[in-house]
Specification:
The structure is a single chain. This protein is α/β, with parallel strands linked by helices and 339 residues long. It has 2 domains: 162 residues, Bordetella uptake gene, domain 1 (D-Maltodextrin-Binding Protein, domain 2, 3-Layer(aba) Sandwich), CATH 3.40.190; 115 residues, D-Maltodextrin-Binding Protein, domain 2 (3-Layer(aba) Sandwich), CATH 3.40.190. The protein is built from 12 helices and 11 strands. The strands form 2 sheets. The chain has a 6-stranded mixed sheet with strand order 2-1-3-10-4-11, with helices on both faces. Helix 2 links the parallel strand 1 and strand 2. Helix 7 crosses helix 12.
Length: 339
């Protein structure tokens, strides 16, 4: 056998041949590690927590997603109502749960962007302890008045409030509630004073506006419109910047001169405990968007006065940050404190 000299070219070919299996194995390592890090899910029943009683928007959306998720997954999905403290009880429960995707939260604005500023002591920090998954729906509030109240437009309300500062009343579901902050934002932008009458819950507040115990209220769109259609309340305006397509005859507050920047859409969104694997959060975001895009689901929600949203997780995180900053100023300037 002839012993060939180890030329530079030959040594390079031999080194490459020896290195190729090692490089291929290294290239496959991340995929194998990823496969091991993403176990089958769900492995047990999944719970979507709502911090509000049955019948509210957060509860309704939790049930829509629970029903549709349950059709897709190998485990049942149920809704648990952990009510109280403006949604904080339910939010705190989820924030303290294991970050494995088996306990989720359908949250509203109050327990995510309001409570850090309306409460000095919080059992959880929304931006730190909860991971945003997907906004389910947005919807307007409806400024309604008892028919005996002489205002028929936003400009009328402002004129009456300026004529008698602090005399005219508005109802809310409690200090620091969505209705309270929406009205304080309106009053400060309009430069008027209205007297706050807090209740323990939306239902009693709305009924006292119907009964003419209180003059005004920012009501949720579906219950507010139901009372309008029954002839028991007068619609004044919606809180979104544009008119709402299911009630185009009702103007937006922003159409009133001087209030062009008023925009207060309410929303509910799906959250998971912080630390939940990003791949699982992405899957939940994608599947929630697919469910809400179904024609029957979308049509039912729009009929109830809601608009379906489909943000990515990054877009939702940016939106939460901007909402937090906006309401930090509103709540701080108004000195609002929750119970």
């Amino acid at each position: 056998m002839i012993d060939r000299p180890h030329t530079p070219a030959r040594r390079l070919r031999r080194t490459a041949a020896l290195a190729l299996p090692v490089l291929l194995a290294a290239a496959l390592l991340p995929r194998a590690a990823h496969a091991q890090a993403a176990p089958a899910w769900p492995t047990r029943p999944v719970t979507i927590v709502s911090g509000y009683p049955p019948g509210g928007v957060a509860d309704q959306m939790a049930r829509v997603l629970a029903t549709e998720f349950g059709k897709r997954w190998s485990q049942p999905v149920t809704v648990e109502n952990r009510t109280g403290a403006s949604g904080m009880i339910g939010a705190n429960h989820v924030a303290k749960s294991a970050p494995d995707g088996h306990v989720l939260l359908m949250a509203a604005m109050a327990e995510i962007v309001f409570t850090p500023y309306t409460h000095e002591k919080m059992p959880y920090q929304p931006m730190r302890d909860l991971a945003p998954v997907a906004i389910a729906v947005r919807y307007p509030f409806l400024l309604v008045a008892n028919p005996a109240f002489p205002a028929r437009t936003t400009a009328d309300v402002i004129a009456l409030a300026r004529k008698s500062p602090g005399e005219h009343t508005y109802a809310t579901s409690g200090p620091g509630s969505v209705q309270h902050i929406a009205m304080e934002m309106f009053a400060r932008m309009a430069g008027v004073q209205l007297r706050h009458v807090p209740y323990k819950g939306v239902g009693p507040a709305l009924m006292d506006v119907v009964g003419n115990q209180v003059s005004l209220m920012f009501a949720g769109f579906p219950p507010g419109m139901a009372q309008v259609q029954a002839g028991k309340l007068t619609p004044i305006a919606v809180t979104t910047r544009e008119r709402f397509k299911t009630a185009p005859e009702v103007p937006a507050i922003a159409e009133t001169p001087g209030l062009e920047r008023y925009d207060f859409p309410a929303w509910v969104a799906l959250f998971a405990p912080a630390g939940t694997p990003p791949a699982l959060l992405d899957r939940l975001n994608r599947e929630a968007a697919e469910i809400l895009a179904q024609p029957a689901v979308r049509a039912g929600l729009e009929k109830a006065g809601m608009t379906v949203s489909a943000e990515t997780r990054a877009e939702l995180a940016a939106f939460m940050k901007s909402e937090s900053e906006k309401f930090r100023k509103v709540i701080g300037d108004a000195g609002i404190r929750g119970e």
